[in-house]
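Escalated from tier 1: protoporphyrin IX containing FE holo job.
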Amino acid sequence: MEDEALAWLKLALICAAVAAAALRIAAVLWWRPRRIEDHFSRQGIRGPPYRFFIGNVKELVGMMMKASSQPMAPPFSHNILPRVLSFYHHWKKIYGSTFLVWFGPTVRLTVSDPELIREIFTSKQSEFYEKSESHPLVKQLEGDGLLSLRGEKWAHHRKIIVPTFYMENLKLLVPVVASSVTSMLEKWEVLMSKSGEVEIEVSEWLQNLTEDIITRTAFGISYEDGKAIFRLQARQMVLAADVFQKVFIPGYRFLPTKRNIVSWKLDREIKKSLVKLIDRRKEESGGSSDDGGGDGGGDGGNDAAALEGRSRSRPNDLLGLMIQASKLSDAVSVNDIVEECKGFFFAGKHSTSNMLTWTTVLLAMHPQWQVRARDEVLRVCGSRDVPTKDELVKLKTLTMVVNESLRLYPPVVAMIRRARADAELNGYQIPRGTEILIPILALHHDQAIWGSDANEFNPGRFADGVARAAKHPGAFIPFGLGPRNCIGQNLALLQAKLALAIIIQRFSFVLAPSYRHAPTVLMLLYPQHGAPIIFKRLADPPAPRDQRL
Ligand code: HEM
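Tier 2 regenerated the structure:
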């Protein structure tokens, strides 16, 4: 009898637990989304209706797949928003520029008004919005460093790493970057036909170039070891990109599939090699706080100032700076350094090569700007000399071209933030946990901000600088904005200008007949069918040095 009562009790408890779990699931997947929809609807913000569990993902993926399966129309148009962010383009027409979209049961408020964006990133309100958790695959690649850290740990790391990217430090890297570029061009020369022409798939070559440069910046004197490590990471990226294109299955990354086993092995190898390298660099720098990256001495108190002093005298590499900082502060461990190195490779390589690829494509499409940019380079730097750091600053036309390329084809097409507490955004009440989607690409193509030629390539709009190029000074944000803006933007721009200057100095180029204009997004904005371009060696232009500026 007692046994039977116990059995009933157990059953009742199980039923209660199942009912509680079901209620919880229903709350998360049904009532909460409805409540949020109502909350925003009362404030005049609407969006496509939430569907149980999947939200708007099915329609969104369908629109994106359809768009990327169709050619651009007209074929070389820069009006790429409908193709690249088709869901935004479609729903904006129905619901206005501030609308809700459901990524599963997670709500995202899409915001493309520059005033609201400024509020989210730079005003006092900005402390309410934090970086949201990345997709697990992205997280594995970006590491647990600056890109994903939050709070005090992020602030500490940022303070330590910032001096690496000071312009006076980066300028010392000009010869390093230039030698990577010229060695790439020498390889192109070898491939050239007798008539001095060659077809190059630039996106691949430029990826190798930026990998080389980021390796030198991150590892400096340990270049060869760094290269081997970044090769492993590049393999891991290929695996991740493959999975990224498939339907996301929660928990998939924990399953011992063939792909996951290879990826885990790579991850272990990357960590092991980095730890070994860091230990060796630590040993080489002995008991002193100098890692050999600089020649000043630190007092152990103001670490950022000490690092800054060093950066003026010699180019420090990221690894050297982090090792130095780890000696000055317990807050940076070997594991932290490992994670930062991973993040730099992830953030620096493809974004910069994409920017270079799009700018090369645009110059091939718009020969009049290619000629203008070349005339300037030849006038300022001559026909064969590698531009110096001072000459680079004088290349105004090239700067305008790069900015226009970053406007029309921003490698990072969107950013996401998450409200960590209930917040007010210019009168809108934003509940805790709401994610905010900032479609950089849409902001950059908005006719209300950039004028009726927003979808045309017109570098001239940047003639008076970035702040005056649009109706709103904060409308150009390829590198993000506020305290978490891109730490590597100076390096990226320096690389791009130097590489482009050396290329246009030596070659003229046009799109290959096989080029199909098809911008698409997979983590970053890239040319779906590659970027084949025909380069033709220029006859040595007669520009003697003394006739230049
Ligand atoms: C054209 C090239 C690049 C573009 C378009 C770009 C774009 C961006 C954007 C939009 C952000 C802000 C993301 C957000 O707020 O959610 C960002 C952050 C970041 N970028 Fe870049 N980036 C580029 C190159 C680089 C390079 C070369 C490096 C490093 C070598 C780098 C390292 C980082 C890091 C570490 C962050 C996170 C900063 C923080 O949160 O404190 N980026 N980048």
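The chain has 21 helices and twelve strands.
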